[in-house]
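Postdoc handover notes: sequence design on the structure in folder B. Input tokens:
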């Protein structure tokens, strides 16, 4: 059994029903939009975010509610919308091995599809009076937008400090996973303090998740993107930031010259990657990732033990050990 399938096992019935409900939520009266929605559903990923919602809810309550299903649908709609918009922003033609929406239907339609998905998620909350979930999701969208814009701003200046880097990934990536664990708790009537604790739990996993993604840029693993793509795109990730901070003036000048002027020169990028490895950048980022992993485990240990908590523990380990 694959790791993700093992994690999903205690909630497999909920996930099957969720997929049915999500497909229904995607239906529209516009034929073109229906074709695009069908394409999106067909190329779904691991669905880790709905899994976080169902596992959190069942860990606390032993069961889920209709609100849990709505929360999972809202998060998946929002997540899909951000991916569609990201592909437009990044001018990307591929997503999970498939053509992106903008590659097949052009940017204008892709932007409108993203807008449709966002509004669909909001209306699902409003129509059912799930205003606590709407608040969580709205805060998340705001933070994700802020994180993206902060990264774009800092990429132009190439002056990202470690503190700013953590702000960016907290907003861009961790906020969405944090919303999942918070929504899972809120959907079964958890107390505000418990919801906040589980929001922090999700945020911590999200931080580890993004650092792991950044580490992939320095490996030879087949992960769906070429090694060094972050450097090519002038993204200042943790291994690179650490190495820049450790470098002497001459080395730092050499590194910045590659990032600014030779970031598309494969040979020079390989030299930079080698330097980052030699200077301990990967080891440092890995230690930071594991510290977030350990923090997530500590938070989880504060909740009663059951098979759903066990699956969440396995999910944490999957995040830091995954190969893709």
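Designed sequence:
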């Amino acid at each position: 059994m694959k790791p993700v399938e093992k994690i999903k096992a205690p909630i497999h019935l909920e996930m099957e029903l969720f997929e049915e409900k999500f497909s229904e939520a995607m239906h529209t009266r516009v034929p073109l939009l229906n074709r695009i929605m069908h394409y999106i559903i067909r190329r779904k990923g691991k669905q880790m975010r709905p899994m976080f919602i169902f596992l959190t809810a069942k860990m606390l309550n032993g069961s889920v509610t209709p609100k849990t299903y709505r929360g999972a649908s809202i998060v998946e709609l929002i997540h899909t919308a951000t991916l569609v918009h990201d592909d437009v922003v990044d001018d990307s033609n591929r997503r999970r091995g498939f053509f992106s929406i903008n590659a097949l239907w052009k940017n204008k339609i892709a932007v409108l599809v993203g807008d449709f998905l966002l509004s669909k998620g909001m209306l699902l909350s409003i129509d059912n009076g799930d205003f606590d979930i709407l608040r969580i999701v709205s805060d998340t969208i705001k933070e994700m937008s802020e994180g993206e814009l902060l990264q774009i701003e800092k990429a132009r200046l190439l002056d990202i400090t470690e503190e700013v880097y953590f702000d960016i990934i907290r907003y861009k990536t961790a906020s969405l996973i944090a919303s999942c664990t918070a929504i899972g708790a809120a959907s079964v009537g958890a107390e505000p303090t418990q919801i906040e604790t589980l929001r922090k739990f999700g945020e911590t996993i999200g931080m580890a998740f993004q650092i792991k993604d950044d580490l992939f840029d320095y490996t030879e693993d087949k992960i769906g993107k070429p090694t060094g793509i972050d450097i090519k795109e002038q993204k200042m990730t943790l291994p690179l930031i650490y190495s820049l901070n450790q470098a002497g003036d001459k080395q730092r000048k050499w590194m910045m010259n590659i990032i600014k002027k030779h970031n598309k020169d494969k040979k020079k990028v390989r030299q930079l990657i080698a330097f980052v490895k030699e200077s301990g950048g990967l080891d440092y980022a890995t230690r930071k990732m594991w510290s977030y992993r350990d923090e997530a485990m500590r938070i989880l240990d504060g909740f009663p033990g059951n098979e759903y908590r066990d699956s969440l523990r396995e999910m944490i380990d999957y995040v830091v050990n995954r190969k893709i």
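Context for whoever picks this up: The two ends are 17 Å apart (CA to CA). Don't rerun without checking with the PI first.
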